[in-house]
Amino acid sequence: CAAAARPARCRAVAADERPADPSIPEGEDGALSGVAERPEADVVVIGSGIGGLCCAGLLARYNQDVLVLESHDRPGGAAHSFDIKGFNFDSGPSLFSGFQSRGPQANPLAQVLDALGESVPCASYDSWMVYVPEGQFLSRIGPTDFLKDLDAFVGADAVQEWKKLLDAVIPISAAAMALPPLSIRGDLGVLSTSAGRYAPSLLKSILQMGPQGALGATKLLRPFSEIVDSLGLKNPFVRNWIDLLCFLLAGVKSDGALSAEMVYMFAEWYKPGCSLEYPLEGSGAIIDALVRGIKKFGGRLALRSHVEKILIENGRAVGVKLQSGQIVRARKAVVSNASMWDTLDLLPPDAVPRSYQDKVKATPQCESFMHLHLGFDVENAREDLGIHHIVVNDWNKGVDADQNVVLISVPTVLGNGLAPPGKHVLHAYTPGTEPFSLWEGLDRKSAEYRRLKEERSEVMWKAVELALGPRFSREKCDVKLVGSPLTHKRFLRRNRGTYGPAIKAGEATFPGQATPIPQLFCCGDSTFPGIGVPAVAASGAIVANTLVSVSQHSELLDAVGI
Predict the structure, then answer these.
(1) What ranges do the domains of the chain cover?
(2) Nearest to 550 by CA among 64, 62, 61
(3) For the domain 33-98+281-363+504-560, what is the CATH superfamily, name and number?
(4) What is the DSSP secondary-structure string of 160-184?
(5) pLDDT in tens, 442-497
(6) Burial call 407-438: b when 16+ CB within 10 Å, e when fewer
């Protein structure tokens, strides 16, 4: 990419003109040389999202011969980054915490990085701007600062209800975090690596809660709304805020979010001394660290390697066939980091039990995304610009309504390594609320497609104008990229461009990592624990742990001090 930005008022680059093309045939850049020399591995991992990379990294750490096959020309899945004219953009997650955490209660991704001997340098901050129908305010994390925000912005009633929620939830978090994610595996060996190893600390946590806390802990696998309802919380803003946090983290509102996941988040964001973190080199730095860890321990990554079919022989998964026709054999297992729907499409129908097919097809999906990526001069924004902004247009529509919530990230306010000097990068998106049905069947080169992109991106433009202030001008942006659900589907290989399964706690559970086909496993947001960076990292770790012996697993836990 060029070192300097394009002149102002030049033609905007369309998102569908991004230089990264996942449809490029395999091997054109030599990325498959390792596969050509050795087209087999102990474990073949399909897809290099965070879940797949965490799985592969730990397998390599366990001295397994692991090969990751990625369809795109760069790793990372929904967390990959890309460059346009010297601007480095995130394609997905931008709100992170817990990178520096260590020990049994650390963030699952931090535990995997620790096991690989890798780290991600980050900048810390403690707030984001919120624009809601009642007005706008700077929301701060921590046990007391948010209470001050509520008191000033909403009132004493909201403060009392939030205190009541924290008083109930924080003690429960000890139980929710008592079993380190890295200790979990998908077989009976979990009785040794998790239950036996951490039973004393879990019991101690439960005893310290007292009767009321222990009662709350029984709801960890229930919808978070049950905890909220049991506390009698009725303040409209507090209820709406809880729904917003649940939806942003889990893809569903509080009546569908798993209590354990939300309790974990509250402990991360509202405990003393907590902070949010952003990788200094963008979200792509997380992917780079995981890839370094894989290669350090002898694992392999092949880009532009589109898997066309999972091979089944004698009822077992034994490898994959690439789009090029090449066969890659797996001696022990195949692990799919693709969504449950995309994984099903890779399997021969006659090899999959009808009940499993029906269950996958019946699983509800979250909707897709609209994306807006901008590169512009710092003078084109307010001087006190913060990194994160959340815009809610109408509480009455619900936080899961389309065109209602917009998230904005401007990471260059924390450091300018992601853009040319004097420039900002910005990523705005609607969080899994854009209906794919509006876009289905459209030709990406058609006038109708361009018209719909312009129409459906307007809500993001308006949110950006609100966040950046009166100095911002659309016409002065050096780079303008509008992405649709079709863009999301194309570059991320996601069925219908979906955010993931819309599985509601209390109604259904995320499936485990094993499948009805021996030697075929899944990881990522279609499996337990669910959607979100910590969850997918944990899912990848669970698969890796399951594929090695209990003694190897225990040795790793000892080595990383948990």
Answers:
(1) 33-98+281-363+504-560, 160-268, 368-497
(2) 62
(3) FAD/NAD(P)-binding domain (3.50.50.60)
(4) HHHHHHHHHHHHHHHHHTSS-GGG-
(5) 999 999 999 999 999 999 999 999 999 999 999 999 999 999 999 999 998 999 99
(6) bbbbbbbbeeebbbeebbbbbbbbbbbbebee
